[in-house]
Amino acid sequence: MSAPVLVASDLDRTLIYSSAALALTMPDPRAPRLLCVEVHESKPLSYMTETAAALLSDLGDAAVFVPTTTRTRKQYQRINLPGPAPTYAICANGGHLLVDGVTDADWHARVQARLAAECAPLEEVRQHLFDTADPAWVRKHRIAEDLFAYLVVERELLPEEWVKELAVWAENRGWTVSLQGRKIYAVPKPLTKSAAMREVARRTGAVLTLAAGDSLLDADLLLAADQGWRPGHGELADEAWTAPAVVALPERGVLAGERILREFLRTTRATAG
């Protein structure tokens, strides 16, 4: 058997979309049929097109598909993706590497050791967020997997200046800040999707790595892959971010997810051929 192609893809607003992020700008009769892939508290939450679902099923047979997300393990495990169950999944922005749904304890311990050595403690960041974020626009303070922090905010009330000041404060402590929809993430710099992707590539002997993502927290993943794609929406698109091996797609919303899967499958098949 030839060495596999590894496909590490972000999920939210890359492959799967909330109703608010679908961007169905076409006339209603021409809207794509959607498949619900996540239910939360008995309500449908995330979707992909039926065409994308079929593409993902094919991709799961052709490549090592690795869902790669900033979601916690619990948030990830409520997603029901089409196709074969992935052997590997990357959760908590690289803090947890799941193998057949179970955390790899050695990987997690290695990540924790790096964080302790290289950046300010989570508690210092949590306290700073608590002290400086205005309750007028903060809806929730959250800690994810004891690894990073995030706020759920009222986006229209959020002062841009506060986000910029937070980014500078965090930078000086070895952390990074990302604003995605209604969430502001504060994440330690060594906590990366790319490090976890490289580990899966090492274990699988992958000959080629492909990646996709839409946010600042996906930039390292896209740079680490042999080839990457980003949709026409999201933090990276807003910044007009690009790199030599990264294709900036024009599609926005759920149709971008479909296009990304077409590119993954086309490239995987070309490699196999």
Detailed description of the structure:
The two termini are about 15 Å apart. The longest helix has 19 residues, at about 255-270. With about 270 residues, this protein is an alpha/beta fold. The strands form four sheets. It has a five-stranded parallel sheet with strand order 5-1-13-14-15, sandwiched between helices. A four-stranded antiparallel sheet has the order 9-10-12-11. Strands 2-4-3 form a three-stranded antiparallel sheet. It is globular. The protein has helices at about 50-60, 75, 105-120, 120-130, 160-170, 195-205, 220-225, 235-240, 255-270, and strands at about 5-10, 15-20, 35-40, 45-50, 65, 90, 95-100, 100-105, 140-145, 150-155, 175-180, 185-190, 210, 225-230, 245-250. The mean pLDDT is about 95. The chain contains nine helices and 15 strands.
